[in-house]
Amino acid sequence: MSFDLENHRIIVTGAARGIGLTIARRFTALGAQVSGWDLDCAPIVADPAFAHCTSVDVTNETSVEQAFNESLKALGSVTVMVANAGINGPTKAAWDYTLAEWNQVLAVDLTGVFLSTRAAVGHMRERDYGRLVIVASVAGKEGNPSACAYGAAKAGVIGYAKGLARELQPSNVTVNCVAPAITETDLFQEMDEAYIADKKSRIPMGRFCSQEEIADMVAWAASPRCSFTTGQVFDVTGGRATY
Ligand SMILES: NC(=O)c1ccc[n+]([C@@H]2O[C@H](COP(=O)([O-])OP(=O)(O)OC[C@H]3O[C@@H](n4cnc5c(N)ncnc54)[C@H](O)[C@@H]3O)[C@@H](O)[C@H]2O)c1
User: Fold this and answer.
1) How far apart are alpha carbons 105 and 99 in whole angstroms?
2) Residues catalogued as catalytic
3) How remote is the CA of residue 48 from the centroid of ligand 1, in Å?
4) pLDDT digits (tens, 9 = 90+) for 55-81
5) Helix, strand, or coil here: 199?
6) Cβ(57) to ligand 1 under 6 A?
7) Where are the domains positioned within the chain?
8) 64 lines ligand 1 (CB under 6 A)
9) Reported pTM
10) What residue ranges in 65-188 does DSSP mark as E strands?
11) Ligand 1 pocket residue status of 180, Cβ below 6 Å
12) What's the pLDDT tens digit per position in 156-213?
């Protein structure tokens, strides 16, 4: 699958590893210049996938604003923002969650998406062009037992994207989500074996989603060709989600 992203200037959050790193590599292969954001960007400073990278905490308003200004200076403009940074949180029943654990998941997975996309949207509106792509999860559509905070945050970003998409119209700035099923990344370290086995068993195709399959869908949603679709959720679940 290939889309022309030649000369596009793209920010990917949570880019130091996992799905974010795979997305960044795909964009670079398609001719884009990528600025990678992560809590600690040291692991990607020398990675050829990145034209620029910066350390940022997406839960912190000042940190996000500074990072956006740095990326803009380095890239010259920003045509695409992929809000991918996320955490799973502890895998346990909702009633065993402390308020601090709940707040942390919502801070990264919901507020982090709000702050990251908000930083880019003014610039995109001025230029009347932009693609905001949010990495949500099937958990936001169906809920995942033992990850209620995660499901709540991911459902939250889907609702956020649908509202923002309409606020932005009429314009050429679109907002879409990609909702993958379980994928082998370092996020597995936040999950126990029973949780991982249960999530895999729910996928009719009987296997984990690959990071490349997610990057394909993100590349489409980030491309100029995705021009008449906004406020939608692209499914990457091997048939798990039925809507
Ligand atoms: N792995 C899966 O099964 C799966 C399934 C569906 C959706 N997702 C979503 O995909 C996205 C990427 O997940 P992944 O599996 O690659 O996880 P990962 O843990 O491998 O990578 C997440 C990245 O986000 C960064 N990050 C975390 N908190 C941050 C913060 N406050 N500020 C900046 N960066 C921060 C981490 O440092 C890390 O580099 C997440 O939004 C996740 O919810 C993952």
Assistant:
1) 10
2) 150
3) 21
4) 999 999 999 999 999 999 999 999 999
5) helix
6) yes
7) 9-236
8) no
9) 0.97
10) 80-83, 130-135, 173-180
11) yes
12) 999 999 999 999 999 999 999 999 999 999 888 888 899 899 989 999 999 999 999 9
